[in-house]
Amino acid sequence: MLYYLFSWMHENRYPGTGIFQYISFRSAAAFILALIISIYFGKYFIKYLKKKQIGESIRDLGLSGQNEKAGTPTMGGLIIIAAILIPVLLLCQLHNIYIILMIFTTVWLGMLGFSDDYIKVFKKNKEGLSPRKKLLGQILLGLVVGSVMYFHPNAVICEKKVQQQKVTEVNSIELLKVENQENVHTPRLFDEPHHSSKTTIPFFKNHELDYSVLTRWMGDESGKWSFLFFIPIIVFIIAAVSNGANLTDGLDGLATGVTSSVAVGIALLAYVSGNVIFANYLDIMYIPNIGELVIFISAVIGACIGFYWWNCYPAQVFMGDTGSLTLGGIVAVSCIIIRKELLIPILCGIYLAQSISVIMQVSYFKYTKKKYGEGRRIFLMAPLHHHFQKKGLHESKIVQRFIVVSILLAILTLVTLKIR
């Protein structure tokens, strides 16, 4: 909303108001505002949760320090959601289709996670929302996101021209204008914006994969049916990443710490994808109007770091499914929007490891129980962070090491843009 106010003021030549046109300024403002909301106002929300006795009920898993966490306020994900949405509503272009999609994702998964936490806390049902209902909510979100990305007229990309000028030939005046997303310069380096089902694929020379290759067996007109594969893949990615983030939220500060480093990687990917000069230099597709996503992700980073202030060991509040499902969905949808979803296994390696550890543990237990009459385990406990707890590592050390690994994976993800 402030963006539109300052845009009007800039058009009417009020001095100093042009700064709101820059993505870098609004991103920094979104980060700071989200940080302040989650730290300062988070304190009062935690007091409110304690007053209403909205505490976490802990299942006895035989882990050290587990009983001390009983009664810790939960549903703190509402702090994260508020710290994200308030800066976004104030600073972003709300008519941007990508921002609309991200707001919808945040609110939708926030309500889904809140429903789960509400059943656990107020209905005293530790199982919460049934897995089928959770999955249905994620599928519906995936259908919306997939359909918008495939069919919406503003969800377009620009590909590099075969013959083009070098980036060094673009003068300094153009460099200053690029950040403001003025597409007047796009034709010099890239083709006109067009619909495409292409995405970025790491480690390959052409660096792009078109989902239409999955329908080539249908004949010459097969390209128009690629949405039959594209949308289900989007649904799977959203469900997988959202659940992976949910599984990661098992130790104090783990989900927020890991998601912060992942979000920094996404913000950088979004910035270079939405900047003509960097997109040209890195030889990647240019995505018009994607720069607004940098502002949204900056708010996510600020919200996560601010929540970490209260959620680090020993946690004064838990995010609950309200936060974990939302953060996972935000990560998945933002990667889809910037067409880097195939980089998720690297960027979100911690989420992936957590999910795989659970799948392996459950599958092997069922297999051995059927074959030997007694279930056996691969890990001491799943998800993976509990395995290290069982081995005697303190949870704060596990969290810090997982965050370090997540930072390294984010760096590796960025490096893949130049590794062909």
Short description:
The protein is mostly helical and 420 residues long. The protein has helices spanning 2-11, 23-51, 77-91, 97-121, 131-151, 172-178, 186-189, 227-248, 254-273, 276-282, 291-311, 320-337, 344-347, 349-372, 384-390, 395-415, and strands at 198-200, 208-210. It is globular, with a radius of gyration of 22 Å.
Could you explain how this protein is built, in words?
The protein has helices at residues 2-11, 23-51, 77-91, 97-121, 131-151, 172-178, 186-189, 227-248, 254-273, 276-282, 291-311, 320-337, 344-347, 349-372, 384-390, 395-415; strands spanning 198-200, 208-210. It is mainly α and 420 residues long. A two-stranded antiparallel ribbon has the order 1-2. Helix 2 (23-51) runs antiparallel to helix 3 and helix 9 runs antiparallel to helix 11. The protein starts with a helix and ends in a 5-residue tail after the last helix.
Keywords:
single chain; 420 residues; mainly alpha; two-stranded antiparallel sheet; 16 helices; 61% helix; 1% strand; globular
